[in-house]
Amino acid sequence: MLKAKATQEFIPIKEVRDGIVVLKDGELRAIVLANSVNLSLKSADEQKAIILQFQNFLNTLDFSVQLSVQSRKLDIRPYLLLLEDRIKVQNEPLLKLQTREYIEFIRNFTDTTSIMTKSFFVVVPYSHAILRPDSGVLDKLFSRRSKEEAKIARQVDFEEKRSQLEERVAVIQQGLGRCGINSAQLGTEEVVEVFYKVFNPGAIEGKIKVE
Question: Which helix (H) or strand (E) holds 67?
Answer without folding.
Answer: strand 66-73
